């Protein structure tokens, strides 16, 4: 700021108007008069306002500078109060100033606001000094005021610009014409990661990716040409090396002479915008190219946009759909309840999903999966709906096929077990309401297996189809005929008028099955055994009804076949005691009360352990360990024997897998019940169990079958044994010698091992006949190239004798009692064959 005029005129020495009144001095001293003229010249020529006033604020002098600054002429202000220049909100300043003057104080460089004649405010910087008379008394005040409005405006503008640069979210940077950074604001640091200290004096190229280095030359050329670059989208690098999408505006910087000396750059981070644009493009691409039909509606359900997929699905062009509602797709196959449910879900949650029937432009109905979502604004008000539609007609048809496969037999197209159970349950409800009897018939064909063996499965399948149609032809429309599998069928006869009508219907079915039938070039004749039970006389659930009919069918077959037998409920009542025991055994199976013990098998001559037999025990919670002889006879011939037999195989395989993980590979044999091998699905069940334990080699599993059970149906048993052997599983005939089998039977059974029954082995040392039988079994095994093993070896002497007559493999108490699986590894480590056995020649 430049000096006051008084200071300039005296070489910097401050002259106070109060030092000596000019009027008094001029009358006595011509020099003083000259000084007065000199200072008056300064006052008149000064750009600053120089004003004097009395102690009550009345203006006594007013120079041209004051007139220029405040707009009033000297004549307008002389004798007027200086308060005339004060804004209303600054009136109190005058009293404060005069108070200081009266106290002899000066007010220096006081910045304030005054009012020009035209009413506009101006900002001034004032210095006020007291005026003294010749005696030194303060008689007034002199005021020098400088207009600093423009300067203040510039300072404010600079402050605002600095605040703008500092607070801006955009990076504001300047650089020289050779690309060196000269300014770097806070936003630039936040955006690029570099501090001002790191970037000032550094080349801007530091921020440029390698593939964009040439952009700097392009930018600088534009600057030198005086051109501005607006909203140039590019990529720059963060300090950590990650790319940043930016939009930059670059302008040339000029000096006061207009010469371009650099460039200013404003950069905005548009990474999120670029991501949003990419997402929008992706969304647009999905909308355009997705295979799902998409429709966008307003809040009233009027279609405003659709994608191409929807036009392909519906057959309507876009122009035919926009402006219409979803009623254009409505099908007569779709009731109003579905639409009501959709609207209710939309109102409740803003989302709805359902399967609907719709209609194409050509009138064709089709099935679709519809998903509708509400789109809301910031206030939560729905303004659009987006509907996604997928044509699932082919899937629905496929589902219907699957449902048909699930409920119907693939060969005969009759209802299967699943659908039979449902229909029987409904028929039982109807029977209770109507009071009429319901009959369940279980049918098994006689001689069907012989047809398969002699003519092949294709003929057998054709026979089953033909007989199914025959039986349907003699049944009523209200009845149900189902195939249970193999050659077994179940018929549910409703509204049966007592025993007489049941006899008539059963007789028709028997005749339909027994009449000769032509299959290709073959005339085939079979018959049927039928078991029946009547509901509600036999007041049990649906599964028990079928089971009772099955029991009765077994009686019919035992009575000579080609007949039917009615289940005897009274006799069944007599067997309820056994039923209770069977239920307890079923409960024991369900609760995991059964356990397997393992009895080792050894080669007595070499001492090698060749395997172990899995033997079931019942760990009764109250009775303790129950031997198999106490409960296995109860389940013989019962379906529970199949379930327990399956459990034994599965448990043994699981144990073999556990041993395998311990490094122990051991062959295990399990006993099969009489019914198991005759189950139609035994092979599939076995395959499934083996598949669950892939680390167990099928060759290490041996299935032991009783000779007596094998002989009951040797053809069926032989067939099942052969397909199981193809898996690698081995077979042995247990208790050999007790069934009195012929040599022909022995030849037809594909078992690798014969097991000498312990009843012969136990007494062979004292009973010559038993010894002869043992010798005979060993001889048969040798003649038929079969292995032989003796059970019931209780003493060393038994082993010695068996070795002498040619049997090396054995098991029994003389070797080891059955033990828990956890004990077997320790036994194996300690087992040694008796020396007496090793010395037998």
Structural write-up:
With 841 residues, this protein is α+β, with helices and mostly antiparallel strands. The strands form six sheets. It has an eight-stranded mixed β-barrel with strand order 23-24-26-27-28-29-30-31. It has a five-stranded antiparallel β-sheet with strand order 2-1-5-4-3, with helices on both faces. It is elongated and about 170 Å long.
Strand order of the largest sheet: 23-24-26-27-28-29-30-31
Distance between the termini: 134 Å
Question: How many DSSP helices?
Answer: 33
Largest sheet: 8 strands, mixed, barrel
Runs in which pLDDT lies below 50 for 5 or more consecutive residues are 1-28
Coarse shape: elongated
Explain the layout of strands and helices.
Layout: H1 5-9, H2 22-28, H3 30-45, E1 49-54, E2 59-62, H4 64-70, H5 74-77, H6 92-102, E3 107-115, E4 121-132, E5 138-147, H7 149-167, E6 171-176, E7 181-184, H8 186-192, H9 196-199, H10 214-224, E8 229-237, E9 243-254, E10 260-269, H11 271-289, E11 293-298, E12 303-306, H12 308-314, H13 318-321, H14 336-349, E13 351-359, E14 365-376, E15 382-391, H15 393-407, H16 417-434, E16 437-446, H17 448-455, H18 457-474, E17 480-485, E18 488-496, H19 498-514, E19 517-519, E20 522-524, E21 527-535, H20 542-558, E22 563-566, H21 569-574, H22 576-590, E23 594-603, E24 609-620, E25 624-626, H23 632-635, H24 639-661, E26 668-672, H25 682-692, E27 701-706, H26 707-712, H27 714-725, E28 730-736, H28 743-748, E29 753-756, H29 758-762, H30 768-783, E30 787-791, H31 796-804, E31 809-811, E32 819-820, H32 824-830, H33 835-838
